[in-house]
Design brief:
Layout lengths: L44 H10 L15 H8 L7 E3 L16 E5 L3 E6 L5 E7 L3 E10 L2 E6 L4 H4 L12 E6 L5 E9 L12 E2 L51 H27 L6 H8 L17 H4 L34 H4 L3 H15 L5 H11 L12
Antiparallel strand pairs: 1-2, 1-9, 2-3, 3-4, 4-5, 5-6, 7-8
Length: about 400
């Protein structure tokens, strides 16, 4: 995959069956003149960091303890270690290095996701460009220096039904066997709309969530029953199972709240990218605005039957990113009693990806959001939060004293 002497890797590549009862839009062409996905310029966090390194304005320190550039990269990109989620299913190009004993670690912020496999070839990154959407990179080394390489080969898995037909990222849930190999027939894409019991097959999840059952932390040991998980004693784990070798990981935790947040974010990015591409390609103001707005508002969120509790600092550090209104409220505030967020409107409304939407589409989204929020219980609080924290809102969003 890479030349001799280079360290690099591609992650996030997995072929999964679509979720049940979900309609997927057509694949959009990357080479459309209005998109030009593979052509410069790129303005995602990795492209910006690469330019800083090239001009000597930034460096990445390499660690010889197996972590390589990972700690320095996370720090430079502003990605918190407590966002770590661990997946042990063999659902990447690094399948040979991944197992229940040796899961791959994924870290994320609003505009970048970083993947690392202990004993693997290097680091992979999915970075968010305001116009192009998700752009994929591998970080390796040449002549003792960090070297980023764009990897459009990732689009073989990361542009299709799982990502709404545009370059994107997604969370999958599978039935893994004892080696971590998934049964393809039971694989689905998950987000905040997915029933709790169908989530996180092939993932480690540390949490307290009562009697609610999920697929996490478990394998299907009987080859004749590939979709029957041995999950006795594998729910509500405060720490990883004993068979996991934690040597060399940045954190011993795979936190449920971080993973649920990332689940929401992945499909939110894909929705925004899809609507933006369609508008630029055909000047269609409507596009799939209705679907995007429903997702932004968590309209189809699967309710929590019992409260959940994470076991890392993510539950407290993520809300601190704000922004906060005059009453101290934020769209990043968690609920975790009956739903994920206290104020159900996606925090990705603050993203550069959302702000880069063509004006007519963005105005249409604002109008639909306002109509929905002013017509539902609890909507006024969200209107007030946005009125205080979101620049560029239409004048009709101003809340009277």
């Amino acid at each position: 995959m890479f030349g001799r002497g280079e360290r690099g890797i591609i992650l996030f590549c997995v072929s999964l069956a679509p979720s049940f009862c979900q309609v997927y839009p057509d694949h959009l062409p990357n080479d459309h003149p209005a998109i030009q996905y593979s052509q410069d310029p790129f303005n995602d966090p990795v492209a910006k960091l690469e330019r800083q390194i090239d001009f000597g304005a930034a460096t990445l320190d390499y660690r010889s303890d197996g972590l390589g550039y990972l700690p320095a990269l996370l720090e430079r990109l502003g990605v918190a270690i407590d966002s770590q989620a661990l997946v042990f299913s063999k659902t990447s190009f690094q399948a040979a290095a991944i197992s229940p004993r040796n899961p791959r670690a994924i870290y994320f912020s609003d505009d970048v996701a970083v993947g690392w496999v202990r004993g693997g070839q290097g680091i992979e990154i999915a970075a968010l460009d305001p116009l192009k959407g998700v752009v994929f990179y591998a970080l390796g080394a040449r002549n003792g220096q960090p070297a980023f390489e764009r990897r459009d080969v990732c689009l073989q898995c990361h542009q299709g039904p799982s990502t709404l037909g545009v370059p994107g990222v997604f969370i999958g849930s599978v039935y893994p066997n004892a080696a971590g190999s998934p049964s393809r027939s039971g694989a689905i894409i998950t987000d905040h709309r997915t029933a709790f019991e169908d989530r996180w097959g092939g993932w480690y999840v540390n949490a307290k969530h009562g009697e609610q059952r999920d697929r996490a932390n478990s394998i299907a040991p009987n080859p004749s029953e590939p979709e029957t998980l041995a999950n006795a004693g594998r729910q509500n784990l405060a720490s990883l199972p004993r068979e996991v070798n934690l040597s060399g990981y940045l954190s011993p935790i795979s936190d449920i709240v971080a993973l649920m947040t990332f689940e929401h974010q992945t499909q939110m990015i894909d929705f925004i990218t899809r609507v933006g591409w369609e508008a630029r390609m055909s000047a269609r103001v409507e596009s799939d605005v209705d679907g995007l707005v429903r997702y932004m508002l968590f309209a189809d969120e699967a309710p929590l039957k019992e409260p959940i509790q994470g076991v890392s600092s993510f539950t407290s550090t993520f809300p601190k990113r704000g922004p906060r209104d005059r009453q101290g409220r934020s769209l990043r505030d968690f609920d975790l009693q009956t739903r994920l967020f206290r104020y159900p409107l996606s925090y990705m409304i603050y993203s550069a990806l959302f702000d880069a939407l063509p004006n007519p589409v963005r105005e249409k989204i604002y109008a639909k959001l306002y109509a929905a929020l002013t017509g539902q219980e609890g909507g006024r609080a969200i209107v007030e939060i946005l009125a205080d924290t979101k620049p560029g809102l239409p004048l009709y969003w101003r809340v009277p004293n």
